[in-house]
Write a structure and sequence with these properties.
heterodimer; A: 150 residues; mainly alpha; globular; B: mainly alpha; 2 domains
């Protein structure tokens, strides 16, 4: 394992600040609306198109707006690099997306619901989920990059 | 006391603002760049710790702020808190999280970054989100048939 970390190549300030903004987002949503900012549930709930789930569209719309604001206004103004456009083979998107869809329904959440919010609530259930998906994701990347023709 | 009509407009705007913070935060922290995410997951390769700072920043905030919010009797603009009822670690949780992790490792996207990346107007995020929806709907349909209308689906 190469633990010779070179923080010069790690955008840790923007990463930390971005993370804090995500935490503040979850804080605002819970404090004002009493809701958990879990994105897999957010998308699924929104697509039931029920009146009681309409609030989810406001959040999802806000997310896109925030992304646009960064990408097309903030980053150019601050002379930051735009997000690299990276299109790898479609099959990995389809296979990966399917598994993420099935897995997050079965396990009731993803990185945001179990990670950002669940850990914030000190939920042992969420901690179990986070440790599990981090492990299988790391094993998957290892197999793809270093074992299977990597 | 403010009128119900004012309140009805306040909540969607606050939720929109909250979503905006989330999307901006994901983009600023480069979590919408799958190479960053895969670089973090690649612990035996050229490890990229960026995601650790993002998660640390986010959980660092929620772990403190939630302590002050959750003991309140109700949120500021809604009637009640909507928290997950399940507390036990069970097989569906672990199996689901395991499958999610595999899909995350294959694609480099989890649902939040996948959704925000739609604004990049390029094909990968669209394919990911469509496949994510197909997987979600398939699971929901199978789970619904299994419970055979005896109990309702959890969130």
């Amino acid at each position: 394992m190469s633990l010779d970390l070179d923080l010069a190549n790690v955008p840790w300030r923007s990463a930390l600040l971005g993370g804090i903004l995500i935490g503040l987002s979850a804080t605002v949503l819970l404090a004002f609306s009493g809701r958990i900012a879990g994105i897999s549930g957010m998308i699924n709930g929104a697509l039931t198109f029920q009146r009681s789930e309409r609030w989810r569209w406001w959040f999802l719309g806000g997310m896109l707006l925030g992304g646009v604001l960064y990408e097309y206004a903030f980053a150019p103004t601050m002379a930051l690099d735009p997000t690299p456009i990276r299109n790898v083979d479609p099959l990995s998107m389809i296979l990966g997306g399917l598994l993420v869809g099935i897995g997050t329904r079965m396990g009731n959440g993803c990185t945001s619901g179990h990670g950002v919010c669940g850990l914030g609530r000190l939920s042992t259930r969420s901690l179990g989920a986070v440790l599990t998906f981090l492990s299988t994701a790391m094993v998957t990347v290892f197999l793809i990059r270093h074992s299977l023709g990597g | 006391m403010q009128s119900d009509r004012t309140k009805a407009w306040q909540e969607p705007l606050v939720i929109l603002f909250s979503g905006l913070l989330f999307g901006f935060g994901l983009a600023l922290s480069q979590m919408i760049n799958p190479d960053r995410v895969l670089g973090f997951l690649d612990i035996l390769g050229q490890w990229d710790p960026t995601l650790l700072f993002v998660l640390g920043g986010a959980v660092g905030v929620t772990i403190v702020s939630f302590r002050f919010i959750l003991p309140r009797s109700r949120p500021l603009l809604a009637a009640q808190f909507y928290l997950p009822a399940a507390t036990k670690i069970d097989v569906p949780l672990i199996a689901g999280a395991a499958l999610f992790g595999i899909g995350w490792g294959i694609s480099g996207y989890c649902p939040g970054p996948g959704w925000v990346s739609l604004m990049l107007r390029t094909s990968n995020p669209f394919l990911f989100v469509l496949a994510f929806l197909a997987g979600s709907f398939t699971y929901n349909a199978v789970a619904k048939r299994k419970t055979n209308s005896s109990s309702s689906l959890s969130e």
